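User: Structure tokens for both sequences below?

Assistant:
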Amino acid sequence: MKSSIKANLAAHRGDLRIDFARGLANWFILVDHVPQDAVNLLTLRNFGFSGAADVFVLVTGYAAAILFGKMTVERGFVVTTTRIFRRVGKLYAVHLVVFVLYISTIGWVAAGYAAPDIIAEYHVVGILSDPIRMLMHGLFLLSKPLNLDILQLLITLLAVFPFALASLLRWPNLTLSGSIALYAAARLFGLNLPAYPAGSTYLNPFTWQLVFVLGAWLALHGGDLVRSLQELRTLRLLAVAYLLFALLVSLAGKDPALHSLLPDFLVSPFTPNDRDNLAPYRLLHLLALALLFTRFVPADGDVFDTKAVQPILKCGEEWLACFCGGVFLSFAGHFVLITSPNSLLLQIGLSVAGIAMMTAFAYYVSWSKRQDHAVRLGARA
């Protein structure tokens, strides 16, 4: 392991930007997953090419590299590998429970409230035609009910992370180059995993792995480079210019009147936004955001001490529970909207209520963990 990597790992001390980014991403994902909700016009995906999913995967790769990189230094690679696979097992078990409950809930709601369109909308047609086959594909993460794609992607990426981590600790730049090569090959040759009942996975793991690996590389090896790039005023201005360009193009893609004012060659290459295969312009947008955010928001910034930010940090700290809860909350919000007289006030109320319930759930999970920890300490005493 390079001494510079050990130094980078030792320098990481409770970066609250990780929890902030994942918590805010959880809020955005919840709102984004409710169709016909005006509030989701305010989320990240409407102001540029990348969205909450991109931030979520990048930050998770960054956090995983810090956690398991330090563990490798302190306890060795063999122990670290077993801890990674234990984490994968936990995520997989959570996914199975959520998957079964989710598709069962959708099927029950569709049958009980005479809303058969929900079955097709949430891509769970197999629950009626061939439930056993759908469940079997779910075991292999190949069923693709709507809104579970991020969790399925993270399980896949973490399952191969021990190999990526070993390579990153020895040959960080070569590993990143290999990740870029795999990304390019996947886009060039159309590599992806099959999905049930048809097509391929929503978030292509062969392309999205680059976001995860890039986050890990930045945590282990890219600190000095990022700090030097942040000091380049010209680069910061270019990043701002690109974000403004992405904002203009994204708004034009949704507003025909604005689209008509811009030349087609300026908008068409970015419309529709290639999310599934992670278009290069989307990745560049994410990097521009990360560059400016980390430049102007320090890891120990006073903003993280304010009461208004604490709920976001808590949702980032308990990201798995919040994400899983958000899957059901978004479905409930969508169901209310399609079965009630829709209005802007109702949409706002549902979004606020959903975020409040997610945040309350995060605080409960955190409190429950503390109680379990106190019991364990008392038993040892």
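Moving on to the next sequence.
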Amino acid sequence: MLGLMALAGPIVAQVPEALLPPVTNQVPDALVPQPTNLLVHALAAKDAGPAWEELKTAMHPPTPPPDWATHEPSLKDQSDYLMPYVLALMDKLKDFYTRFPKDTNAGDARRQEFEMTRLAINFGASNQTARFDAEEKALLTDPTLSEDERFAIRQNDVERAAQAKESAGETAMLAEFEKGARSLQKEFPKRPEIMQMLLEVAINADPPKARPILQEITNSPVAGAELKDAAAGQIKKLDALGKPVDLSYTAVDGRAVDVSKLKGKVVLLDFWATWCGPCMEGFPQVKAVYDKYHTNGLEIVGISLDEDKDSLTEFLAGNKTPWPQYFDGKKWENKFAVKFGIDSIPAMWLIDKKGNLRDINARTGLGGKVEKLLAE
């Protein structure tokens, strides 16, 4: 989802992926096998205690299909199988807190109904949106709601609003996300997560817009050391714009690569790995751009963050990849990833015909950017 990238380790994708709604391809821990008839929407118990015990049992749907043990189910598989149980559980939870509003478990039931409704919508039940909005409104007025819970709800609102702009393009989505982050900043001025959200905005914004946001993060009393280091790393990348890129290596196939000797060409510097899902999804686009513009002067220089050389070479051969690749097997400690401050992949940089770095966010609109530089 957009927002709250984990800083405990390197980030595997940037905003395009980060702008997706909070959908998971894993069955929630709460939804584990337990024989019970969940298709009944009302609780049978008449008193709060037994009703709560009945509800806890209802949190466990029947055993998933056997083939889920051998392959990860798709979101559609999960939706088709679990949707009836999720919808029934939502009603059971509502039944509980409606009938027993003063019970100590009523608040938990309301919160779990909210999460199950979110799951139903992620499974495709768009007709539950009005219910979700009503549940959210009720939760936000609950005085027992913790700040962490309140922030999580509001953050999700920001992500949903950004996702709603998808048809208008990534620029509109990013603008909406920043707008929401700034609203959260006023509402929750001491939350470090908001600085993380702003970092995502900066990573995907044009340099003139990105730089003041990054400076804001590095000067923030709210941002932690890791977040400030990440912002400083992004500033370092911005400082590299307009300057030559010092990069030379011997490729996995033995070719000598020296970017300084490619003047007169437009060079795409591609940081990627075969273990990176978004890299694999975007690979056909990269290859299509190469095929279209190579004869006009485009070269691609690959920096693979793979750990296994055989996996890399097999992929390159299988996909008839003609451009050279650097490999040292060190993953995030890759020589050039460290040198250039790469903490998320895929990362694509464009170098112009004069040998100067022109774009550090080349992935979005790649073909158009390449064509523009070739025309200079």
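User: Anything stand out in the second?

Assistant: The longest strand covers residues 266-272.
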